[in-house]
Amino acid sequence: MSVEEQLSDHDRAVWRDFMAMSTQLIRELDRRLQADAGISHADYAVLSALQEANDHQLRTGELAELLAWEKSRVSHQVARMEVRELLVRKECDTDGRGTWIAPTALGSRVLLGAMKKHGSTIRELFFDVLTEQQRRAVGEGALRVLDRLSLEACAIAQEKGISRSARSSRETASA
Description:
mainly alpha
């Protein structure tokens, strides 16, 4: 019996709707970021992850884990962004094989310039169409799934000061 056969008709419909929504939402966010700020959704994701990190820098593997990308994809994305002077790679003091990725001053300015309009777009396309109860349910559900899927990403996020998991949210609330 396949996994598809184990799902009810309702579950399959919910899954298809979720996948269609997420794909179309990312496509529209990318289109608007390109038009409004001249950067891609991938550029924004990288710059945002670096901005959120305590020291505004991450190693390639950490960035890959946080973004759920392959290291090769991160390397190619970083190389493209370096050419545009949005990022810089720096050698790691503690590990000669390691490299830090950090935004340049231009990269930080580009991100800050994109954030306000991008936030408005997210509000318009996502939050404004949901009730408060739906927002809470989506948020709680997302954290539960993330906790199951990305334990390493959750640990990296917590270490770098990026709150991403239900676990770190619960720990913060109980502290």
